[in-house]
Design brief:
The protein is of the alpha/beta class. The protein has a single domain, classed as Vaccinia Virus protein VP39 (Rossmann fold), CATH 3.40.50. 35% of the residues lie in helices and 28% in strands. It has helices at residues 5-14, 16-23, 31-44, 59-66, 78-87, 122-135, 172-182; strands at residues 50-53, 71-75, 93-95, 108-113, 136-147, 152-158, 161-168, 185-192, 204-210. α2 (16-23) packs across α5. It starts with a helix and ends with a strand. Residues 5, 8, 12, 23, 54-56, 60, 75-77, 80, 97-99, 114-116, 118-119 line the site of S-adenosylmethionine (SAM).
Length: 214
């Protein structure tokens, strides 16, 4: 079921500080994240611009910046953006909506979106992919992650605070079909088990997809 965007925004506003504290250094404990982000940085090389969509407190932006990628972050929640700016003053973070991107067609070289689609219904995932395909340059790279499964999990407590939000899980078949239908190519889905103790216990997927070069 579709969740209202202003509701998602408010949920992240409410836990922005706690979220930033919990996840600010998370890649340090996640070797597969590091490997995947290194690969993204190598594939993108000097191409610009690169954006982190649904960037949250900016930990992925920062990790990529440390690998030499000049990156900016975009998120729905103004409070989480405040956390990102405070933690990483050298990176530009701004408000925006993945479902209605205010970027020109063919304008972005690379997009990462770590767990940014976890609150979208299937039709919104398609909308997000259509928007991302539109704004990517030909040959542009899209890297994103999600929780694998078919379920929706409703939570009423998030990082110690009252919450009311759904997390959607997706199958890799669904993702693959969706991306292909929209026109992406070279789709590669890499799955892994969750890291014990430090993560919510769900299987995870990283996806590399490309907009065809002209
Ligand atoms: C699960 S968090 C992931 C944050 C970060 N990428 C990470 O890996 O920790 C989802 C993020 O996506 C943002 N978000 C949700 N819907 C969005 C939308 N339509 N446009 C932009 N950001 C969105 C939320 O505000 C939140 O910061």
């Amino acid at each position: 079921m579709k969740q209202k965007l202003h509701k998602i925004e408010k949920e992240y506003d409410a836990i922005a500080k706690e979220y930033a504290e919990k996840f600010c250094d998370e890649h340090e404990n996640k070797p597969m994240d590091r490997e995947i982000l290194l690969r993204f940085s190598q594939e993108i090389g000097n191409r610009r611009p690169v954006w982190d969509f649904g960037c949250g407190p900016g930990q992925t932006s920062k990790y990529l910046q440390n690998l030499g990628v000049q990156i900016s972050g975009l998120d729905l929640s103004e409070k989480i953006l405040e956390q990102a700016r405070a933690k990483h003053p050298g990176i530009i973070f701004r408000k925006g909506n993945i479902l209605e991107l205010d970027f020109q067609d063919n304008s972005i070289a690379g997009i990462v979106a770590f767990y940014a689609i976890v609150h979208f219904a299937e039709e919104q995932v398609r909308e997000a992919f259509r928007e991302i395909f539109r704004v990517l340059q030909p040959g542009g790279i899209f890297l994103f992650t999600y929780h694998i499964g078919g379920q929706t999990i409703h939570i009423d407590e998030f990082l110690g605070k009252k919450a009311d939000i759904d997390f959607m899980f997706f199958t890799s078949d669904f993702m693959s079909v969706c991306l292909k239908d929209i026109g992406f190519e070279k789709i590669e889905i890499i799955e892994r088990e969750s890291y014990p103790e430090i993560e919510y216990q769900s299987r995870r997927a990283y996806v590399f997809a490309k907009k065809p070069a002209i």
